Amino acid sequence: MKKIAVKTGWEIILPFNIIMLVTIFLSIGDEFLMLALIIIPFTLFFNYILFSIRYYIESHFLVIKSGIAPTVKININNITTVKKTNDPSASAAPTIFGRIKITEINNTLIITPKDFNELKTELLTINPTISFKE
Fold first, then answer.
1. pTM for this one?
2. Which CATH number do you get for residue 110?
C-alpha cells in the first residue's frame, strides 16, 4: 500500500475556525454556554473531516478515505484522464488550490494530492494509458 500525501488548504480551515472562535467570544454572557456547546463540537467535527482525508494506492486501486464517508475505490486501469482543475465542487479535496480531476469510465472525482508528480508517476506505473493534462 502506497500512501499519497494530501494537500491541506489553510485557506479553508483558518477562516472557518477563526469565525467559530470569534462567534464564541462575542457571545460571552447569558448564551455563552449554549452557543459553545453547539459550536465547539461542530468545529471539531468539521476539522476531523478535513484532516481525516487519506489517499492510498492498493494493488491497482486508488483508495480515498474521508472521515465518516464511505471509502471510495477507483480501479486505476479504468482511469482515462487526470487534469488540474479549479472546480470548487464538494469532494475529498480539503483545499481550493491544487485540485485535480480524475476521470474514470463512468465517474469523476476531485482530489488534492500534495505532490502531483508523485501521483502521476504512481498512476502511470499501473496504467500507462492515462492522459495527463496540466
1. 0.83
2. 2.30.29
